[in-house]
Design goal:
It is built from two helices and 25 strands. By secondary structure, it is mainly beta. The strands form six sheets. The chain has a six-stranded mixed beta sheet with strand order 6-5-2-1-10-11, with no helix packed on it. The chain starts with a helix and ends with a strand. The relative contact order is 0.13. Bound molecules: calcium ion (4 copies).
Length: 375
């Protein structure tokens, strides 16, 4: 992918601000049942910090509405709680699980009722655009005048995948989830590394027994993406609670078997594994119960021909599938499926990573698994 200098500058600005500052940590936008009363937005930052000058707003991405500012929340009157979390809700109904005691909970009136289509979510400081402004008058997918007098701190965009939609996050330094032709996502969930820096976004659908939760990730219908997998890591939303951790993430929902495509994989094995050897592997049959490798390390993959293929042919399907972790214990790789790959019977590919101590040759770590849907 080619990126302009301006994009790099914007990315650097966002990364720098995110690491120590304020970020979007969780959003429930399209809940099961009636949306009104369930929509929630969780913001994370330093503890007990006034958000003076901050705003959160949404840019519509759907076709003729593209670019219109649908909702603006001035965060100036709010602060994060003692645990660094601010939860914005549209009801006082009891949420399950209940927000943590240290979370600052705000119930907005009038209630936000957020549409479920393609959206860009923006968090930042300065003068936010006013409600109903069209930031993309010619609907070409580029903000006509950027965001003057506004400093973007975090931005995220998703699409309902029905075509003709525009996402505006990348051009202001944020992250865009690739198209979701399988479903309209209900939620976005951020995971953070051990130091509290944003690691990755995952999205999907939730199921809930009642209109106030608990909201479980919909693994049964294959409607989750990225680093979420049944039995490993977070299993549902924790609105107003500290987010769960993931150590392996992917940036795409699905790849067309007919057309082929790519999925980027990011491993966070922690700084304790800096310089150690990593190996990215996969399975097309599952993740549970996993392969027990040592008394403390279980690889969350099922042994099958795909796993054996990746062991026997490194740096082919995933590249680089083997290498050394950087000083933070991280590595990135790209999975590439050619058009018409012989995987017609597989619905999901799972991937996970192993880490081996380069001095002792002991297996020190196995990541959580990622998912990739084939269609
Ligand atoms: Ca909604
Ligand atoms: Ca434009
Ligand atoms: Ca427009
Ligand atoms: Ca949370």
């Amino acid at each position: 992918m080619r990126r302009s200098l301006a994009t790099f500058a914007a990315m650097a600005a966002v990364t720098g601000l995110c690491s120590a500052q304020v970020s979007i940590s969780e959003m429930l936008i399209n809940p099961p049942g009636p949306d009104d009363g369930q929509e929630s937005i969780e913001i994370r930052g330093p503890a007990n910090t006034k958000l003076t000058g901050y705003s959160f707003f949404l840019i519509e991405g759907d076709k003729v509405q593209a670019g219109i500012v649908d909702l603006v929340i001035d965060l100036s009157g709010y602060s994060t709680g003692s645990n660094g979390l601010l939860l914005i809700r549209d009801t006082t109904a009891v949420l399950k699980p209940a927000p943590a005691v240290g979370t600052s909970v705000v119930v907005l009136n009038p209630t936000p009722d957020i549409e479920n289509g393609s959206y860009t979510f923006v968090l930042g400081r300065g003068t936010a655009p006013t409600f109903n402004t069209d930031l993309d008058d010619d609907n070409d997918g580029k903000l006509d005048n950027g965001l003057p007098n506004f400093t973007v701190v975090d931005a995220f965009a998703w699409t309902d995948g029905d075509g003709g939609n525009h996402l505006y996050a990348a051009q202001i330094g944020g992250f865009e989830m690739p198209h979701a032709t399988v479903f309209t996502p209900d939620f976005a969930y951020r995971t953070y590394d051990a130091a509290g820096n944003p690691f990755c976004w995952t999205v999907g659908d939730v199921t809930a027994p009642s209109s106030t939760g608990p909201y479980a990730f919909d693994f049964a219908n294959l409607k989750v993406q990225g680093g979420l997998a049944k039995g490993y890591g977070p299993q549902g939303l924790d609105l107003g609670g500290a987010n769960g951790r993931l150590s392996f993430c992917a940036d795409a929902y699905n790849i067309s078997l007919a057309k082929g495509g790519t999925q980027n994989l990011d491993l966070d094995a922690g700084s304790g594994n800096a310089g150690n050897l990593y190996l990215m592997l996969g399975s097309l049959t599952g993740t549970l119960p996993g392969i027990k490798l040592t008394s403390t390390v279980t690889l969350p993959l099922t042994l099958d021909p795909y796993l054996l293929l990746l062991v026997g042919a490194p740096n082919t399907v995933i590249a680089p599938s083997i290498g050394l972790l950087d000083s933070k214990g991280r590595a990135s790789a790209t999975l590439t499926l050619p058009a018409n790959a012989p995987l017609a019977l597989a619905a999901v590919l799972y991937h996970a990573a192993l880490v081996i101590d380069t001095k002792s040759s002991v297996i020190t770590f196995a990541s959580t698994p990622t998912t990739l849907y084939l269609r």
